[in-house]
Write a structure and sequence with these properties.
The complex is a heterodimer.
Chain A lengths: L4 E4 L5 H18 L7 H5 L2 E7 L6 H11 L1 E7 L2 H10 L6 E5 L3 H7 L2 E2 L1 E2 L11 H4 L21 E2 L14 E2 L2 E8 L1 E3 L1 H4 L18 E4 L2 H15 L12 H16 L3 E5 L2 H9 L5 E3 L2 H9 L5 E3 L5 E11 L5 H13 L3 H8 L3 E2 L2 H6 L3 H7 L9 E2 L5 E3 L10 H5 L2 E4 L6 H13 L1
Helix pairs in contact in A: 3-12, 8-9, 9-17, 10-11
Chain B lengths: L1 H42 L1 E3 L4 E5 L2 H6 L12 H34 L3 H12 L6 H6 L1 H5 L4 H8 L14 H25 L3 H9 L4 H30 L2 H6 L7 H10 L3 H25 L2 H4 L1
Antiparallel strand pairs in B: 1-2
The chains are: A alpha/beta, B mainly alpha.
């Protein structure tokens, strides 16, 4: 089932569009925001089709973007696998692509995407060194197992499909957002502290555990678990040998056959439903899913674990079909995205913005202190849509940015033996 | 002179016959035969991580049967998966047949007035007003660990611990499949039943046949075409299903359709096509066996 929906977020009817355009034109005329464009161009309809998973696709972002730039964003939402599939099979069906770095090993050789020119990105030099150097702003190095973004950030040239080892002008994906993932738990049902990935296979949670069924991500969770149980120490979790893949899948299959797992999940909402209904009490999870369960009034913790986090990062590039004027709009949109509003929005969801300085300017000091510095909330913490997430006094799971990103152990990964891994993963799912 | 006119006439009528059959034949050719041909061709292509390589390769097939020889006498993944799918198919077929036949019988013979037959048949279609997925998902809050069924059983003291096998299990998959597809059995069987000449039933009664004898020796044989058509519907849908198996099985249960889906997700289109060809072959064999039992064209 390809869960693909297309939504027109800003200005649905022609009338409201005209009103909006008139408003923007008026605003532009009044404030001089848009300069250098003749009036005809400024009133031309600027539309970008934005392909991505639901993760970064807030309606508030597209609305604000339309207000600020006049660019209308049409979201095309699909699951992680379907996004990749669409890039491969229908490269002309989207303009801007929002995807994860690990998929680049498939996308770049397909030549269906265009790298971007770093010089045209205003905030490029302010992008966090997590992406460019693999270290925190304070200089601490972070885990590099798996497809870490700095390994695949640059290409050797605009038409090259070779990843450059040192910085070049040509960027595969302009960084937007990243996070450190761990297991989500239901503290009210587990009733004891959890401190290791090994707990996912603890028979105590038989029939109440879950792992995510996206091979490139799930295999990393599985590897974290197996290392934590002490059964094997991988030289590089992010690039396993066939024997290591066999071993990993054997241990997971045994657990599955013993009834350890309640279900597997593939998208955000499935993970929320499993956790909120109590079908599972411990599982792979994503930060906003934990937030969502909590906002339903159900206790759920994004549990920091002693072995560290599995991290991911995503960014923007263009379809190879985007040409001329539309390329300029895409750059304009990406520059807008990094200019702060979207960054603040994503930070308030529990993610991290690629350009921290602009995100900070768009957040209240107490919000920044809670989300980024790991300090107790001075006031009630609200989500980007205004729902209450935490009462005053709460502390973020895992603490500060440095505590969370500093403890990254590995990244979502496409391995050299990816084909073999995917086959074995499917056998595990079918076993 | 006369012969020439006749020839012209028959040429004209055969031209008209072609014209009449033409549009559907073209639609079939364009939207069924051609795509199927492409699937078969692609299934013999090679592939890498991100694209199909248009050169002859049996890799889609050999990968699918990986380990099948090595694991003998044990079963490899694809054999186990097909066995599982066939099992689902057999159970769902039997259940939908019994339920479908009963419902159709009630509609055709117990309900006397035409109006009520129409009204009740329409009521049967009500579940189809919502989507497949919604009808399926509706089971989840009912069967879940803290769902209605478990809460009820615990409240009346029938069980102490919630029953885990109600959801994300083979049971829930089969239940949902039966729920979704019984109607496909009801319609063709009902259609066969209302065409049965009532005097045949009266004759059987007059000849001293009991109710069961009439059912078994008169009604069932006359319903055969309906039963076979309904069976073809149910079997083909269940053999290829991956959505119901996925959602109700918690993505943990394998099925032939799911193999294709996972291959597609991994961008291994030739392997997916190869599995589609295998599935098509297996389903075709079952349908061929069914039509051997009853010659539908003759019966219609």
């Amino acid at each position: 089932m390809s869960e693909t929906t297309t939504t027109l977020s800003a200005g649905l009817s022609r009338r409201s569009l005209l009103k909006g355009a008139a408003g923007v034109a008026g605003l532009a005329a009044g404030s001089g925001v848009i300069t250098g464009f003749p009036y005809i161009k400024a009133s031309e309809e600027k539309v970008l089709r934005y392909l991505g998973t639901a993760v970064n696709e807030g309606d508030a972002i597209s609305k604000k973007c339309f207000e600020d730039t006049g660019i209308k964003i049409q979201y095309i939402t699909a699951t992680t696998d379907d996004v990749t599939k669409r890039v491969m099979t229908q490269p002309n069906s989207f303009d801007v692509l929002d995807t994860e770095y690990f998929s680049l090993k498939k996308l770049v050789p397909s030549n269906n995407i265009l790298p971007l020119d770093a010089k045209k990105i205003k905030e490029f030099d302010n992008i966090t060194p997590v992406f460019t150097k693999g270290e925190l702003p304070n200089g601490k190095k972070i885990g590099n197992q798996g497809t870490a973004p700095w390994k695949v950030l640059y290409l050797e040239g605009p038409d090259s499909d070779v990843f450059a080892t040192s910085p070049t002008e040509w960027v595969t994906l302009i960084p937007t957002v990243y996070n450190a993932d761990t297991l989500g738990i239901r503290p009210d049902l587990i009733k004891r502290p959890i401190s290791s990935w090994a707990e996912l296979l603890n028979p105590e949670f038989k029939g109440k555990a879950s792992i995510l069924n996206i091979p490139s991500i799930g295999i990393m969770d599985a590897a974290m678990v197996i290392e934590a149980t002490g059964q094997y120490k991988y030289p590089d979790k992010g690039n396993m040998t066939k024997a290591e893949i066999d071993l990993t899948m054997k241990i997971m299959t045994e657990a599955k056959k013993a009834g350890q797992f309640r279900a597997f999940w593939k998208d955000f909402n499935e993970s929320v439903n499993l956790m909120s209904s109590g079908e599972t009490v411990i599982q792979s999870m994503w930060s906003p899913a934990v937030t969502k369960v909590r906002s339903m009034g159900i206790p759920c913790v994004f549990q920091p674990l002693k072995e560290g986090y599995r991290s991911w990062a995503s960014g923007f590039c263009m379809s190879k079909g985007v040409k001329g004027q539309k390329q300029e709009w895409a750059y304009e949109f990406i520059n807008w995205f990094l200019s702060g509003f979207a960054g603040g929005y994503l930070n308030r969801q529990g993610y991290y913005s690629a350009v921290l300085s602009t995100a900070k300017a768009n957040m209240e000091p107490y919000e920044w202190a809670y989300w980024m510095e790991g300090k107790p909330a001075e006031k009630d913490i609200k989500g980007p849509d205004g729902t209450l997430l935490e009462k005053a006094g709460a502390v973020r799971d895992g603490g500060s940015y440095e505590d969370r990103m500093g403890n990254v152990a590995c990244w979502n990964s496409i391995m050299d033996e990816n084909d073999y891994m995917v086959r074995k993963w499917n056998e595990f799912i079918a076993a | 002179m006369k012969a020439a006119a006749m020839q012209e006439n028959s040429a004209r009528s055969s031209f008209i016959a072609w014209l009449q059959a033409g549009p559907l034949a073209l639609v079939f050719l364009a939207f069924f035969v051609l795509p199927l041909l492409f699937v078969v061709i692609v299934s013999f292509w090679d592939y890498n991580d991100y694209q199909m390589l248009p050169m002859l390769s049996g890799r889609g097939y050999t990968d699918s049967f990986e380990g099948c020889l090595a694991e003998l006498p044990g079963l490899c993944t694809i054999a186990k998966t097909y066995l599982q799918t066939l099992k689902f198919c057999a159970i769902v077929w039997a259940a939908t047949l019994v339920i479908g036949f009963t419902v159709a019988y009630f509609l055709a013979f117990e309900v006397k007035s035409k109006e009520w037959q129409i009204i009740l048949s329409l009521i049967c279609t009500i579940p189809f007003w919502t989507s497949n997925v919604i009808r399926m998902i509706a089971w989840i809050p009912l069967l879940g660990r803290n769902g209605l069924v478990n809460s009820f059983l615990q409240a009346i003291g029938a069980i102490n611990e919630p029953l885990d096998w109600l959801l994300y299990s083979q049971f829930s998959v089969i239940l949902a499949l039966i729920h979704l597809f019984t109607f496909f059995m009801v319609v063709p069987i009902f259609n066969s039943m209302i065409r049965i000449d009532r005097s045949l039933i009266e004759a059987a009664y007059d000849a001293g046949a009991s109710g069961w004898q009439t059912l078994w020796n008169v009604i069932v044989p006359l319903c055969k075409p309906g039963i076979v058509i309904g069976s073809i519907f149910v079997i083909t849908i269940v053999m290829g299903d991956f959505v119901t198996v996925g959602v109700m099985g918690g993505q943990q249960i394998a099925s032939a359709g799911k193999i294709i889906q996972t291959r597609l997700d991994a961008l291994q289109f030739p392997a997916a096509a190869a599995n589609a060809v295998i599935l098509l072959g297996v389903t075709f064999l079952i349908i061929a066996a069914l039509t051997k039992l009853v010659d539908i064209r003759k019966e219609l």
